[in-house]
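Hi U.,

Before I forget, here's the chain from the pilot set. I'm dumping it here mostly so it's searchable later in email.
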Amino acid sequence: MKKVLSLILALALAVGMTAALTSCDSKKIKVNPDKSKYVVGICQLVAHESLDLATEGFKDALADALEAEGREVEFKEQNGQGDTNTCKTIVNTFVSDDVDLILGNATAALQAAYNATETIPVLGTSITEYGVALGIENFDGVVGSNVSGTSDLAPLEDQAQMMIDVLDLKEGSVVGILYCSAEPNSQYQYDVVNAYLADKGIIVKEYKFSEATELQGVVVKASSECDAIYVPTDNTVASNDETVRNVCGPAKTPVFTGYESDVCFATLAISYYNIGAETGKMAAKVLLGEEDITEMAIAYDASPVKKYNKAICDELEIDTAALDKDGYVARESAEG
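Structure:
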């Protein structure tokens, strides 16, 4: 009997210790809602229009929210120049500096921050799918740690259907999907769009590359073999849009992108400024202690807009009057 009681007591102590450890773990994220000035580190993977707008929206919204509460914010902003290792170095410096919060703009930047700290709040933006980016199986929309943020994922099947409708693609038409194999979120988008197009009888060809230096050759091949090209929200392609434009423009190959771009004729576009601003509002709530980041769901742009590039549509002889009638908006800038 004594042995049984001893075993029960030992189990009870073990459960109690586990609960205590779990409780400590839930409180280890460092947030000081009483500070008058916060320091926020921003790691942006690469400079291009969409990511630049997301960073701008984040800074504007966070500064405004803190100013409304009589607080200040200092931004330490760094660019990874498209290099994963540079992002790791940047984020490790932020951790050493003990910043109050880190923004990871694009997947590699978020991954670097996620792996660098469990105590500093981390928010992501311009992330397509957090489960894929962070290796979380059966992701339910809440990371559950010191990480949350916003997604730049527009409705992929709706995008694919738009391309079919505008270009009047028929069964047997050939669509090439162009993306960088080093970006896991691009692979995810490829899988979704490929399945949708294939179900409609569209022939899908995959054109992937691992480095920007390979892009031109891959685009030349795709433009010669396909009726149209689809590009997901891929940072490597987005930062080299001019290469795609210089090939597909003269070839008159229509390009449809998952983001706003000077290379595409039309898109179902989210606003990167808006998702950045939403991330800034989330950051303010975390820093001020108004919300627990471990319970924050990933946020999305709820109102993507159908837009077209008139100059490219004219080149491709696409009827923009018909697009106007269908509710498309002429693109003036990535924010507009």
